[in-house]
Amino acid sequence: MTATTRTAPRTALRHRLAERGIDRQLLLLVPALLAVLILFIYPFAYGMGLSFQPAEGGVLGAYRNFFGDAYQRDTIGTTLQLALPAAFLNVAASVPIAYRMRGRFRGKRLLTTLLVVPITLGTVLTAEGLLNFLGPTGWFNRTLLEAGLVDGPLRLTNNYWGVFFSLVITGFPFAFLLILSYLSGIDPTLERAAATLGAGWWPRFHRITLPLLAPGLATTFCLTFVLAFSVFPSAVLVGDPAGTTRVISIAAYHAAYEAYDYSLASAIAVVMGVVELAVVAAVLGVRSLFYTGSTGGKG
Amino acid sequence: MSWLRIDGVTRRFGGKAALERLDLDIEQGEFIALLGPSGCGKSTALNCLAGLLPLSEGSIWQDDTRLDTLPPERRGFGMVFQSYALFPHLSVRKNIAFGLQMRRLPRAEVRRRTDEAIKLVRLEEHATKLPGQLSGGQQQRVAIARAVVLEPSLVLMDEPLSNLDAKLRLEMRTEIRRLHQSLGLTTVYVTHDQEEALSMADRLVVLRDGRVQQIGTPEELHTRPANRHVADFMGYRNLLPLKVTAVTPDVVTVEGSGLALRGTGVGTLAAGDEVVAAVRPEDLVVGEGGVPVTVEVVEYQGRELAVEARTEQGLRLHLRAVERPAPGDRITVVADPSRVLVFPA
């Protein structure tokens, strides 16, 4: 055998690996992979395992416990009733505002900043503000009373509406920013072309812009829904944590830190994840029916 | 009275005029080219016509109807965009049918006219594809079909060929001209390519810095440019800063930088004036008793050679030669006085 035939297979192997994207640069992934493994995969698997090891009742005992008890089981419905309308409203309210703001105009940066401020405030401050503003003796009710529009103060805090408003205030900026960036990814010439073809503003929006925006709306809906579904601080602070806003994260908290039933708490957390995944899968399923390719803009 | 009248149309961006008092009368069936370098205001003019930009001043009239106060969707003009602007989520067929559906025409008629338009641009086997699956030339044809299927009173085209390769550009040029004639369209076509404009248009409007420089037929612009800027744009590559030494009714003699030429004056000139002599490279030929120059660069261009040469004083000349001179050769060049245009500087 000659030297050339011996070396040939060795270089070929390296090239074949490189062709599949396997080379030494892959080592750069190691720190990130380790972090994911230690901080995410392991605790996740541990919690999963915990949920199948209740003190009594066999492997599925914790789950049977949760679904067997109406007080626990109903937290799924309670949370969905809060999270779905809140996510829907956040997306629906963001679309017209972002649509109006997609071009360039004076004061756009200021307006964007104002709209985004609630993100930086945090849920607790928002909740405190809501208690002061919407509470029985808050400005809102006092104004209504003074104006003679209502006989007694409207109950807008420490119930469903308090939590709902809080979810809208904190979720809207996320939805708005995401949708604004999706909208600016759509080539503005498309609407101008539609205009020269005789389309007024409404057909331009719903036949051209909306279908191109639909995948972005679906993604935005999923993200704001997941944020709203894991609501905890505002459900306690401006809600009615023992009754109408006993959301699923409160149930998990009670199980873990008041009943010290880590197995049940883990089971609730898993149920939470499954419900979220189901909603996200449904939305993405609908999304796949739409056009998802290039929208011709700057991306 | 003309059919479409553009009357003193002006468009300013932040105080700076992008288009200054454009007056233009368009007859039905005409092919008008707006020609000029980038930033000259030609696209601004087109967008003002289409209604995509509001006017700062002036008005647009079609017969006795004032158009400039109408939104784009009510002007009834078709437009072909430089980027084609095809709707990426709609098939070729739906793209073309869009405008017809906006007019709320009966479904059968939409279908018939869409079919006709698809056939017209020869895209039958691509009708169900999305625009992203088509080549540049095919996308261009969809954009044209989408605009002309409405039988618009005026078709506006914004540099529609600038994204195509050279060969396709020639083919589409003929195609657009063919459609213009066979459908009896009236077309306003924006381009920066003088060759494209000369070959396609019935009349050209040359713009520079937002102002009209000259309006005329291709022949008029080609042989009698109104000023040095139009000459520059019409392929007079040699623009020589010289001085008038003698003026007779027919011939102006100009000198400077080591060369003397006889040419035709444009406008009133007197001896001693600073002028610009404009000569096309193909009108400057190697000949006896002319200006002595040194050859610097020779480019092969098929039937002839493009030569860049310099006079002793360093003035650069572009000319054509049939036989290949070598760089460094000393030759003499001559030009027919009728082909040398002398403009006031």
From TrEMBL, chain A:
Belongs to the binding-protein-dependent transport system permease family. CysTW subfamily. It comes from the Bacteria. It holds the Pfam family BPD_transp_1. The keyword Membrane applies. The chain crosses the membrane at residues 26-45, 82-99, 111-134, 160-183, 212-232, 264-286. Residues 76-283 form the ABC transmembrane type-1 domain. InterPro entries: MetI-like, MetI-like_sf. The keyword Transport applies. It is found in: Cell membrane. This is ABC transporter permease. It is a multi-pass membrane protein. Keywords: Cell membrane, Membrane, Transmembrane, Transmembrane helix, Transport. PROSITE patterns: ABC_TM1 (PS50928). It comes from Paractinoplanes durhamensis. CDD domains: TM_PBP2.
From TrEMBL, chain B:
Residues 4-234 form the ABC transporter domain. It holds the Pfam family TOBE_2. This is ABC transporter ATP-binding protein. Keywords: ATP-binding, Nucleotide-binding, Transport. Gene3D superfamilies: 2.40.50.100, Nucleic acid-binding proteins, P-loop containing nucleotide triphosphate hydrolases. GO terms for molecular function: ATP binding. PROSITE patterns: ABC_TRANSPORTER_1 (PS00211), ABC_TRANSPORTER_2 (PS50893). It comes from the Bacteria.
